[in-house]
Each structure stands twice: as C-alpha cells, then as structure tokens.
Amino acid sequence: MTESAPASSAEAPPRRSDATRGAILAAARERFAADGYERATIRAIAKDARIDPSMVMRYYGNKEGLFAAASAIDLRLPDLTAVPRQDVGRALVAHFLDVWEKDDVLTAMLRVGVTNTTGAERMQGIFRDQLLPVARHVCPDPADAPTRAGLCASQILGMALTRYVLRFPPAVALSREDLVDWVGPTVQRYLTAERP
C-alpha cells in the first residue's frame, strides 16, 4: 500500500482558526459600527460571532487589539503612474466608489470614526498613510502634499458620509458616473492646481 502525497497548500481546507478570526473580525466591525468603540464589548462581539469571549481575548488580547485588527483597512489604491496626471482625481473617486460599493468595512469604520476619537484617529491614519503618497506623486510641490491629501480626504469622506452613512437622498440618487463627474474635478483641483 503506497502512501499518498500530502495535499498541496492550495488544496488544504482553511484552518478553523482562520474561520474563527474571520467571524470575530466581522462581528467586531458590525458591533463597533453600531455601538461605537466605548459601548462595544468583547462579550457582545463574542456573542455575535457565536464563540466564547475567551477566544476573542486569545486571538486579539483586548478590545484595543481587536479594534486595531478590525480597522486594518487597505484602501487598495490603484497604481496611478499609468494614469494621465489630469485624470488622477477622477480615477481616485471612481476607485473609492468601487471600494465603498463592494466592501462595507470602510463604511463601518467611517461610522465609528464619526462617533469616537479612537475611530477618528484610525481613519486619519489610514488616509494619511495611503493617500499622502498619491498626493506627493502628482502635486506641483511635494511640501504641499499633506494639505492636498487632507483636502482630498475631506471630499472623499464627505461623499461617503452623505451617500453611505447618512444616506442623503440626493447623494444616494446620483449614479456612479455622475459622482465621478462632479467630485473628480474637485479632487483633481486639490491635487494638481497651483496653490491659491
């Protein structure tokens, strides 16, 4: 009787711990978005994930560690080096609309950021660390990049807040193309216009 070769890692079923971590993070994002950072508890998150609270502590240590993991967001910004400089604003707005339409994690974290200092700091860090390099790449003076990235973030987050969190009817009613047409030029101006 010959022994079969072990299954390759591509064929291996996901480990139970990966499924548990995923369930915890999904429950944490929902709970933080619904209750805010202060009111969300490890016990409530564990109940939502249908696991014992000790498992949350085992994987994430404490609520702060869990929040950091739940809010680790990659904006997955596209490589904009191939995009003509005058189209970067439209490309960014289109990208962010895609992110918000396909993934509710960023919307959940935006809700937390609006109501909680820890959440706001987390969102600030995400946008600072990931949007600032884009601004540095395209703006006329790299010294202005932090200001320009901040203005872009204010426009993009404002769009997301009114469309996906507060659900203002006019913002919700706009098509994706209309939003790109309206907001893209403003983001472009923030990035590439001469300083006023």
Molecular structure report:
With 196 residues, the protein is mostly helical. It folds into 2 domains: 16-70, Arc Repressor Mutant, subunit A (Orthogonal Bundle), CATH 1.10.10; 80-192, no CATH class. Helix content is 71%, strand content 0%. It is built from 10 helices and no strands. Helix 5 packs across helix 10, helix 6 packs across helix 7 (117-138) and helix 8 packs antiparallel against helix 10 (176-192). The protein is elongated. The protein starts with 15 loop residues before the first helix and ends with a helix. Mean pLDDT is 89; it is low at 1-9.
What is the CA–CA distance across the termini?
80 Å
Total number of distinct structural domains: 2
Q: What is the residue-averaged pLDDT? A: 89
As a whole number of angstroms, the C-alpha radius of gyration is 20 Å
Strand content: under 5%
Count of discrete alpha- or pi-helical segments spanning 4 or more residues? 10
Largest sheet: none
Please write out the topology.
Blueprint: H1 16-39, H2 42-49, H3 53-60, H4 63-70, H5 88-102, H6 105-115, H7 117-138, H8 145-165, H9 169-173, H10 176-192
Helix pairs in contact: 1-2, 1-4, 1-6, 2-3, 3-4, 5-10, 6-7, 7-8, 8-10
